[in-house]
């Protein structure tokens, strides 16, 4: 059995009970080295396979092989495993290699002779939800999530999506905003956004949400380039209605146009 688990921000307090119990029960845990460290106290005594960045395919192949051998295996991702994480890669790998999958919504085809893979995806708190909770309520209305990493997606595609989301006045959440080797994309995104948004548009930056060294910054679109941002950050760009009140970022849904607020 393969469990694809989102561990959320990484601490036990924000780990779902289902994820917690599954991690305690499985034989093997596979994951990126840093994510394994977050849950090390839960998986002592288990077979642990950890690999560095850009070894995602290896991790998936290893986890699938272990699960198909008859052992229970957890493949872990931070946040939610279905958001910029490992769940999609597992299903892509199975599709490319014609591996039959058995889950809650599927049945094994009797014509497929390959050993099946039993899969369960266990959700976790995604980084955008963890970060939004620290900022206040930036995502109360429609929003778009865009990764600025060009490792798997060409910049031309990312740029097109930024234009589309900005012109539609979505609140925009940027994942993977900046790294030591990839430091220009966020500045380019800011220049695009300034074509559609006011310079005073609120921007929230959350680093290490709900983990050690957590920090929250509130800046404006025009001063975004001065903020401390790295790969452990999630950046929230407000829309035309987003405001800041007593240090909290608020995107109204429209209640004030329908109801009278009274104290």
Helix-strand blueprint:
Blueprint: E1 2-6, H1 17-25, E2 28-32, H2 33-38, E3 47-51, H3 56-68, E4 73-77, H4 86-96, E5 101-102, E6 117-122, H5 127-135, E7 136-137, E8 143-147, H6 155-167, E9 171-175, H7 185-193, E10 202-207, E11 215-220, E12 233-237, E13 243-245, E14 248-250
Parallel strand pairs: 1-4, 1-6, 2-3, 2-4, 5-6, 7-14, 8-9
Antiparallel strand pairs: 9-12, 10-11, 10-12, 13-14
Helix pairs in contact: 3-4, 6-7
Provide an overview of this structure.
By secondary structure, this protein is an alpha/beta fold. The protein has 2 domains: 121 residues, 3-Layer(aba) Sandwich (Cobalt-precorrin-4 Transmethylase, domain 1), CATH 3.40.1010.10; 124 residues, Methyltransferase, Cobalt-precorrin-4 Transmethylase, Domain 2. The strands form 3 sheets. Strands 3-2-4-1-6-5 form a 6-stranded parallel sheet, with helices on both faces. Strands 8-9-12-10-11 form a 5-stranded mixed sheet, with helices on both faces. Strand 10 and strand 11 form a beta hairpin. It is globular. The mean pLDDT is 93.
């Amino acid at each position: 059995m393969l469990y694809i688990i989102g561990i959320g921000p990484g601490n036990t307090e924000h780990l779902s009970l289902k994820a917690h119990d599954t991690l305690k029960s499985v034989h093997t845990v596979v994951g990126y080295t840093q994510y394994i460290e977050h849950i090390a106290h839960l998986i002592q005594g288990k077979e642990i396979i950890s690999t560095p960045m850009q070894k995602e395919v290896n991790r998936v192949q290893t986890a699938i092989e272990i699960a198909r051998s008859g052992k229970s295996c957890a493949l872990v991702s931070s946040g939610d495993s279905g958001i910029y994480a490992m769940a999609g890669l597992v299903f892509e790998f199975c599709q490319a290699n014609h591996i039959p999958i058995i889950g809650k919504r599927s049945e094994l085809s009797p014509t497929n002779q390959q050993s099946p893979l039993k899969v369960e995806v266990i959700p976790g708190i995604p980084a955008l939800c963890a970060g939004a909770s620290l900022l206040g309520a930036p995502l109360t209305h429609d929003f778009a999530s865009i990764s600025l990493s060009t490792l798997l997606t060409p910049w031309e595609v990312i740029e097109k999506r930024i234009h589309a989301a900005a012109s539609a006045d979505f609140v925009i959440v940027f994942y993977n905003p900046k790294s030591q080797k990839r430091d220009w994309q966020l500045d380019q995104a800011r220049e695009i956004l300034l074509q559609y948004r006011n310079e005073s548009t609120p921007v929230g930056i959350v680093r290490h949400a709900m983990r050690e060294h957590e920090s929250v910054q509130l800046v404006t679109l025009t001063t975004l380039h001065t903020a401390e941002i790295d790969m452990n950050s999630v950046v929230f760009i407000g829309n035309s209605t987003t405001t800041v009140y007593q240090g909290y970022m608020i995107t109204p849904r429209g209640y004030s146009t329908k109801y009278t607020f009274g104290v």
